[in-house]
Amino acid sequence: MNFARTFEVFRQEFAHNLKRPLFWVQILVLGFLIYMMSTGKAQIGSGDARVGGKKAWITSEFAVGQMLVMLMAIVYVFFVSVAAGMALIRDDEQKVGELLHSSPLRAGEYIWGKYAAVLATYVVILAFHIGFSMLCNHVLPHGGNAEFIGPFSVAHYLRPMFVFGLPLLVLFTGTCFAIGGATRMPVLVFSFPIGVLLLDAFFLWDWSPAWLPLGVNRLLQFADPTGLRWMKETWLLVDKGVDFYNKQPIGLDALVIAQRFAIVAIGLGCVAWYARRFASQLRGVRVTPAVAQAALAAPPSQAAAPAAATLAPLASLGMRAKAPGAVAMTMEVVRTELYQLVRTPGLYLFVPLILIQTLLNEYGVGAFDTPLLQTAGSLASGMFNTLTLLICMVILFYTTESLQRERGTGMGAIYYATPLRTGAMLAGKALANTILALAIVAACFVGCVIVLAVQGQVSLNPAPFAIVWGLLLVPTYLVWTAFVSAVFAVTSNRYATYAIGLGTMILSGWFQMRGKMNWVFNWDLWSATKWTDIGTFQYDALPITLNRVTWLLVAVLLTVLTVRWFERRERDATNALLRMRPGSLVRAMGALTPFLLPPLVTGGVLAWQVGDGYQGAAAKKANLDYWRKNIQTWKDAPAPVLAGVDLDVKFEPTEHAFTMKGSYTVENATDAPMVRFPVTVNPRWKKLAFTTNGAPASTENRAGLVIVNPPVPLQPGERMTLGFSYDARHPDGSSRNGGYGMEFVTPSSIVLTGFSGVTFTPALGFFPDEAVEEGKNDSDPREWPEDWWKHEHGAAIPTAGRWFDVRMKVDVPANLQVNATGEKVAESVANGRRVTEWRTDHPVRIYNLIAGEWQVKKREGVAVYYDARHPYNVDEMLDALEGARRWYGEWFAPYPWKQLRLSEFAGWPTYAQAPAGNISFSEGIGFLTRSKPDANAAFWIAAHESAHMWWPNMAMVGDGPGCEVLSEGMAHFSTLLLVEKMRGERQRQSFAKQMESRYGRLRQKDSERALVKIDGKLPGDTRIWYDKGGWVLWMLHRFMGEERGLAALREYMAKYRDAEVPASLEDYLAIQRAHAADTTAFDAFTKQWFFAVVAPKYLLENARLEKDGAGWKVKAVVHNVGDGRMTVDVAAAAGERWPEAGKKAAPWKAERTVITIGAGERVPIVLHCAFQPEKLVVDPDVRVLMLERNKAEVKLAPAAGPIAMR
Amino acid sequence: MLEITGLVKVYPGPVAALQGIDLDVPPGMFGLLGPNGAGKSTLMRVLAGLLEPTSGRVTLDGIDVLDKPDWLRERLGYLPQDFGFYAHLSGRDMLLHLLRLKGVQAPGGLNGLADELLERVNLTFAAKRPVKSYSGGMRQRLGIAQAIAGDPRLLIVDEPTAGLDPEERLRFYHLLAQLAEQRLVLLSTHIVEDVAVLCPRFAVIRGGRLLARTTPRAAREAVAGLIFEGVVSPGELPELRATRQVTQELLVEGRHLVRLYEPSGAAPMGFQAVTPTLEDAYLVLMRAGALPGLETSAAAEVRP
């Protein structure tokens, strides 16, 4: 290789790259994103959200590395593919190849010079990225986010650049360069980046169920070229604490080092391979001697030309020409475009790509990592984003190349001089590309069919596909095609079109990620819609419709602009300037008005809907006004308690509306007369009116807080009737961008509760926490005194402090059935309406109402109301309900109500709630799952919700810190007991592992507080309530022993079931302590698990397996690198503990030892086994909560030593 | 009748490619002759509706084709100077595609017509080969086939014989001659022979300006008796170039054969009067900028 020649090639290409719009658009996009990230809080999920708490710096190596990798995978990759992939194709199109290669320039010099220039261009961009990040983070002033900026360290930027950035650049540039060179097909160069992005964004970066074997996980880490999966799985999923992330470098292991070298080798290898191929084909493709012989032996192919004079005159051909119609022209263009389309491999790459993506749905998991039972709707909806991304990418590339084709092939002069109408040409090309899009959609459909067939449970229903892909995706396709065409028409430059198209997609994604998108601008409906079999798009039909119509009209406008601007006749620069004169512009706008006005009108209506909707500016203001107006006056003001509820409610579900006329019996439970009291109402309710004891009430509405003045002061212990009436809607107007409320009224599903917010009924009191908006009026959590629980306090659910009776009369359309709190005492159907009346057979603390079109399956005292299409897990749920009634009743207290019902609702929100006797249960979390021993969401969640009948429906908990552990933690703990009782030890361990895994992944080490301190105000608190709370309560129960533990539980229930002051966690522990056999040990246990933050993490070091006479000896050191002192089993084991039914497996054998190990301690162990053990496990029975359980297990092999495994 | 009035085209730079062309082109064959860079292709592209002029007017049979490019396209056959085809299509499929786009009809159907046209340009043997395997001459012939297809009122051919071997060039001359009987054919070329063979009328363009509009006969007559030929030694050439209007210097069998233009009509020493060719007239025009007796175009003003 001659350096001077190579450098000359490099110099030319490099200089050219630096002048391209592609380069500068990427610089602009990156600059914008980097600046925005430096002003925001794009840090890793660690730290302490409290004022002055430790914050994760956006300047740490971890933060820089994570952001760099994501930007490279999302932003760089497509720009790189265009620049690298087109480098050789462009020379072809400019026809400089023969000139270049007739010079002394060698093939290798040409290829490597070109490649080096492309790589150098992106190294320059990467250097800009890093340099600009340093500038924005450390030089530009920071006000509000200064605490997220750490001290400057050049290593924090350079190490991620060298370890993650540069290898990725080499991979992307090398592969795209080689693909472009080898195929000379522009569209194909984008196949690699699209494949990487789809696989990463929709699978590799997030799919990581707790049951995934470590080996498979490591393989997937290796397969992700960005390194992000490795980074997340190795360092980020389990929070290491903010000090670690802020100060430590990203520790590299053998896997990632090997991977980084591998991807550099693949990138450079592709270039080297192509350089050899290019050199061998530079003088034409070689043919075999046999082919050459045959060609030489063949007669000349050119027949002797007939003399011109012998031919009949042209006139004899009778040619005529008449411009064909628009349809004929369009179809002709389609035919030719398709001819070329099917002969390029793009089709055959993108189709399998989407097929693979679709088939991965088979491995989709939901709550508790339970495999999802996919339905046609969930598949259609689940693939919506993937299809949108892939089709938009494909359309960007195919449309651009299609429009460029005539210019690229040199055919433009002939083509554009034909009578072919510009509109027909554009339509024809768009239609041909539609075939490609359809092929992708068809492949996706085939994938969905395969998934459904493999599942073998849900039948194929084409309707959801038609609705989701037809009505929602097609407008996206049309508007994007029109946009790309319009950009090409304006710029007449394929690279500018790519740059603007990619920039648009990236910025759209940015606004999506930042939560700044709304229905008006969400042109591709990214993540805005949610499928439910029960009420297809009923929740937000209007904004969806307006959005699609608006963007269809935008597509029409863009199409008109494209037809007008498409440069079939090269514009004259002087005339172009003249057309910019005001008069010309006004005339042009006038001509466009018929196309411009409709989308402006529909978009305007949609904007008004969003602004006026329940997530709009007016609603936010009303919420803040409620807080501002009343916080100083009404905070902690006493309110009466509920002593009875009587409701008459009539629903008009098609309007999302209901009319309420009802009353509360309220009681002054304080020691002082109550002259006035606050009642919180929904500020959007209409025709709101109150009565006191049947007479119009004297009230003052203070921004949603109604102050009721009783005719005479309400004396201590005195009751009165507070009547109310209003018209309400839920959802009231449009959401902002597809957010779904917990409660709603739709034609096929209604969920309303009387305890969460004021969606259904007024709430007695003032609730400032309900009006807190992040970044506006939020605050640090309250610091409670140590003995707060000894003083009087309220209930966690303010309206649920007392037992009361409820009567509800519910009027719904006759197609709906109703389940309300209590027993149905009357039902009538007339004039298309169903009227039911409900009365509680035993007092309650919480009430609700659910309606739907259901099938029902009942057993003694329990019933599941479900959509007819979702019968799959009903028996599993019934088992849980039935078991709960029996076993919880036996363990804790008898179940007081006649029925325990579970009713399915449309799965816009995915949650379940358990007011007395009437569980509402989303279709999305248990009805559509595939239960298996390792993951059984249907049973587990039903058991959890059933446990809420006891905790807190019977034993209400207080409103202080730690109390929710007695509700959510107790429900999880009860579930562990019930699962073990009814489903066995294997499922108990699986459920415990799931809880442990969720706790490990979602805790924030620096802000985690002791269980008695958790109040739900910090990130991660909720998971601690549920998962750590449940785990620790179960460990405590085991510590106490079955008999003592249950006795304590029964005493707790008996004491707090009717208590005036609800329970705290400290109250619960006091009762448990009274039953403990060893109070010293009890105190030691509770001190670390309830009053401190501990999380053991065990490693097995120096594990060795040696022959020991006829048996085997295992030696190892157990190291607790976490916190806490616990007694834990260590077992050397072999065989399959729970073999799958019908599968042959070696029997389970285990040899155990028990150790007690504290924080930071190392304990050596020796185990003698009569069998050859295969693995060494700490806590084989899953009895001690720990972090990263997969690291507490090693494989044992006599020669090779230990291998880490799950 | 094609009427071009005050046609100006200024490219950003700025480069004035056409500086006010006024030209009436009657039905039949009309040649546009000029050196490379004279503005011929710019003029052809403007006439074909592919390039917007800076100013000026072009009408065909009274219709302003700059305002109505769609009207023109339905009546246009165009062979550009530089063009390509869809590489993966066969020659026949490519031609059929363009025939359909042009709305060409024939009594025997399009397939038969495509075969006939391919035969006319001697491409029958390669009809089913992909265009990417065609030589430059074959591509040029395929371009000719599409240009002559249909019944174009105006046929614009820009450097059509470039890349054609003599036999094919002759074949093309015949085709064009047939076509010119009933329509307007505008032949742009820098090859004087093309004009001499085909065009009863032609115009000469240089530097974006029209130098002459004439016939081959008139052009030849304008220099009749003024062209002289002689053989000179290499040493005499520099002085001859300095003192005379040398039009051609040819090496014939090792001797320097020189033709020169002598406006006075007096034969220089050693030179003999010869019958002028069109090329003589063209070259004299290129050097002198004008010829007595030829109609010329006044320099046009560039209109904003």
Concise overview:
The complex is a heterodimer of chains A (1206) and B (304). Chain A is an alpha+beta fold and 1206 residues long.
Could you explain the architecture of this structure?
- The complex is a heterodimer of chains A (1206) and B (304).
- Among the domains of chain A are: 3-283, no CATH class; 326-612, no CATH class; 952-1093, Neutral Protease Domain 2 (Neutral Protease, domain 2), CATH 1.10.390.10; 1098-1204, Immunoglobulin-like (Sandwich).
- Chain A is 47% helix and 15% strand.
- Chain A contains 33 helices and 30 strands.
- In chain A, strand 23 and strand 24 form a beta hairpin.
- In chain A, helix 3 (61-93) packs parallel to helix 6, helix 8 (214-223) crosses helix 9 (228-236) and helix 16 packs parallel to helix 19 (462-491).
- The longest helix of chain A is centred in the middle third of the chain and has 34 residues, at 422-455.
- The two termini of chain A are 51 Å apart.
- Residues 1200-1206 of chain A have low confidence and may be disordered.
- By secondary structure, chain B is of the alpha/beta class.
- In chain B, 32% of the residues lie in helices and 29% in strands.
- Chain B is built from 10 helices and 15 strands.
- In chain B, strands 6-8-9-3-10-11 form a 6-stranded mixed β-sheet, sandwiched between helices.
- In chain B, 50% of the residues are buried.
- The interface between A and B is large, with 50 and 67 residues.
- Strand 1 of chain A pairs antiparallel with strand 7 of chain B.
